């Protein structure tokens, strides 16, 4: 289903620049099982890295020129490292340039031990690609940032932990691009382990790998359904919802909604704007759902947590209001086919749905979804199994 993106960038680099790269690095996409948007309120998220990957081939230069090529668009980028600045309008190169900008600005403020080599920021020749669908809620931006930051950590001798690399990606989105987003996606793609899930606590800044039985042990398979609708992380509709959560926390005297119980929120409902209240209700109840999901998954197993997926989907649809007609249809068709769980993944306003379906019903559900999209005249539907994979790495 997915290309070997590392081979793609290795070949693309040689074709574009006429010599071989110094190395090739890649990072996966992410399936968010639960907890979307809670990390901006010190919440908890739960997900795993899946098989599609972004990749980057790099070679350092002796000057400060940055040359970027890709097979995703025909445009080529050439800019001096010291001239990179936040853009007036957004484009495909925002994430690689933003990461260079973040690291360039961070370096003078960071104190390094005297007994280790100092980082050396150089110009770069770079070829990038991704198989993580852009704008589908599968963390394509975090994937690309993770591949590039892992490469620069080595080539520029930064010697930083994966959690600090995740912070770089977070700063790209919030400081360079102007999106309101948390660190969850970046943490997951940088710390994921094959066959394990990632539990991330934004308040403590802790990530834990969780051992789980494969879905196949229960006769199920994970399905990714791309709706064909895309979103952008900097969209005002997402920022507005995050601002509503900040207002509620501030109005009730808390630093974040992580500190607020559902009982306190309900008691204060009359004081709050109704839309703000519902945004906060999703965050508060979703944090508890992630805790319940993690505990039950460990103690009682998969059947006990399946209803939580559907509860989460209803809340992110009705309270946070980031679902769409296509997402709702996918979830409804999945339920009609007997799938016990279906939930959108990512920030919403399009994107993809993660479905847990019986192995025996996989083909029937796929046929039903294709028939439904044809009936509505919609295109862009993509359906494939969700296969777990490992974190960002060097491939060559």
Helix-strand sequence: HEEEEHEHHHEEEHHHHHEEHEE
State mean pLDDT (0 to 100 scale): 95
Distance between the termini: 22 Å
| Strand residue content | 15-25%
| Topology, number of strands | 12
- Percent helix range: 25-40%
Shape: globular
Structural class by SSE content: alpha+beta
Tell me the number of helical segments per DSSP (H or I, 4 or more residues long): 11
Low-confidence stretches: none
The main pleated sheet reads as: 8 strands, mixed
C-alpha Rg, in Å?
A: 21 Å
How is the topology of this model organized?
Layout: H1 5-17, E1 23-34, E2 44-60, E3 65-70, E4 77-80, H2 94-106, E5 124-130, H3 140-155, H4 162-177, H5 184-191, E6 196-201, E7 206-211, E8 220-226, H6 236-251, H7 262-267, H8 274-299, H9 302-318, H10 325-336, E9 341-345, E10 352-358, H11 362-376, E11 382-385, E12 393-394
Parallel strand pairs: 3-5
Antiparallel strand pairs: 1-2, 1-12, 2-5, 2-6, 3-4, 6-7, 8-10, 8-11, 9-10
Helix pairs in contact: 2-4, 3-4, 3-5, 4-5, 6-8, 8-9, 10-11
Give a short overview.
By secondary structure, this protein is α+β, with helices and mostly antiparallel strands. It has helices at 5-17, 94-106, 140-155, 162-177, 184-191, 236-251, 262-267, 274-299, 302-318, 325-336, 362-376, and strands spanning 23-34, 44-60, 65-70, 77-80, 124-130, 196-201, 206-211, 220-226, 341-345, 352-358, 382-385, 393-394.
């Amino acid at each position: 289903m997915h290309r070997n993106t590392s081979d793609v960038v290795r070949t693309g680099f040689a074709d574009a620049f006429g010599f071989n790269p110094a190395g090739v690095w890649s990072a996966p996409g992410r399936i968010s099982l639960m907890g979307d948007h809670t990390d901006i309120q010190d919440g908890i998220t739960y997900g795993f890295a899946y098989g599609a990957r972004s990749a980057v081939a790099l070679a350092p230069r002796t000057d400060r020129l940055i040359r970027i090529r890709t097979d995703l668009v025909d445009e080529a980028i050439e800019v001096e490292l010291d001239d990179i600045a936040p853009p007036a309008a957004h484009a495909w190169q925002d994430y690689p340039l933003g990461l260079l900008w973040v690291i360039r600005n961070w370096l003078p403020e960071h104190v390094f031990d005297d007994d280790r080599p100092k980082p050396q920021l150089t110009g770069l020749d770079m070829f990038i690609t991704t198989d993580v669908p852009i704008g589908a809620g599968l963390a394509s931006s975090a994937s690309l940032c993770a591949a590039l930051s892992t490469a620069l950590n080595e080539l520029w001798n930064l010697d930083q932990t994966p959690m600090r690399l995740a912070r770089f990606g977070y700063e790209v989105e919030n400081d360079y691009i102007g999106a309101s987003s948390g660190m969850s996606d970046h943490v997951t793609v940088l710390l994921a382990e094959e066959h394990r899930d990632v539990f991330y606590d934004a308040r403590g800044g802790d990530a834990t790998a969780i051992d789980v039985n494969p879905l196949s042990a229960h006769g199920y398979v994970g399905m990714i359904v791309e709706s064909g609708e895309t979103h952008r992380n900097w969209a005002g509709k997402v920022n507005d919802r995050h601002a509503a959560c900040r207002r509620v926390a501030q109005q009730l005297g808390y630093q974040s909604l992580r500190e607020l119980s559902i009982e306190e929120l309900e008691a204060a409902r009359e004081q709050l704007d109704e839309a703000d209240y519902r945004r906060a209700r999703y965050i508060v109840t979703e944090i508890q759902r992630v805790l319940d999901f993690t505990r039950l998954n460990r103690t009682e197993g998969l059947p006990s947590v399946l209803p939580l997926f559907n509860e989460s989907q209803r809340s992110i649809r009705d309270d946070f209001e980031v679902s769409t007609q296509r997402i709702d249809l996918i979830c409804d068709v999945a339920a009609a086919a007997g799938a016990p769980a279906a939930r959108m993944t990512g920030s919403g306003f399009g994107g993809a749905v993660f479905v847990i379906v019986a192995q025996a019903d996989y083909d029937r559900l796929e046929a039903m979804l294709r028939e439904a999209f044809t009936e509505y005249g919609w295109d862009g539907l993509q359906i494939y199994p969700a296969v777990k994979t490992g974190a960002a790495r060097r491939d060559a």
